[in-house]
Amino acid sequence: MKRSAYLETTVIGYLAMRSNRDIRVAANQLSTREWWDIRRPEFDIFVSQFVIDECDQGDPSAASERRIYLKNIPVLDMNDDVEALAEVISAELQIPPKARIDAFHISMAAIHGIQFLLTWNCKHIANPENRPKIERACRDRGVEPPLICTPFDLLEIGDV
Asked: Which residue of 42, 69, 76, 154 sits 20 to 30 Å from the alpha carbon of 31, by its own alpha carbon?
């Protein structure tokens, strides 16, 4: 049985982004593409309408390139439970209004029982200081939190 993974917008962004000269960004791009090419088939992957909407923003040419990676990926449904958990996570992490979408990504994966949330957003999502708060918010509502990680992390886990 395959494991499940929710792809947050930054993962799609790194896949579609042109090569970058910054060594850290280039390394993240490389590991994202390597995960996509090698490990992705081992997972049932999902996105949300939030991911699609974010990918559609900005330069139309870049948005078109991001859309290529979204083809044939199932889109998880928004519901009241997702919204309620996102509100709690947003308050717990003190996420500013302009970044509230980050709480929705976490909530979407948790409510839908997705095992992994892949992201390069280390400010609010893949932040080790936030992990206990995210896990507590989910479990207090009877929901198992996703394991939040980067594509690089999933390259390193061995055969799944």
From this structure: 76
Q: Where are the domains of the chain?
A: 3-155
**3-state SS, residue 45:** strand
**Tokens 């839908």 identify what position?**
112
Question: pLDDT tens digit string along 58-110?
Answer: 999 999 999 999 999 999 999 999 999 999 999 999 999 999 999 999 999 99
- Please give the CATH number for the structural domain made up of 3-155: 3.40.50.1010
Measured CA to CA in angstroms, residue 31 lies from 16, 26, 40, 88, 139 at distances of: 13, 9, 12, 32, 31
pTM, entire model? 0.93
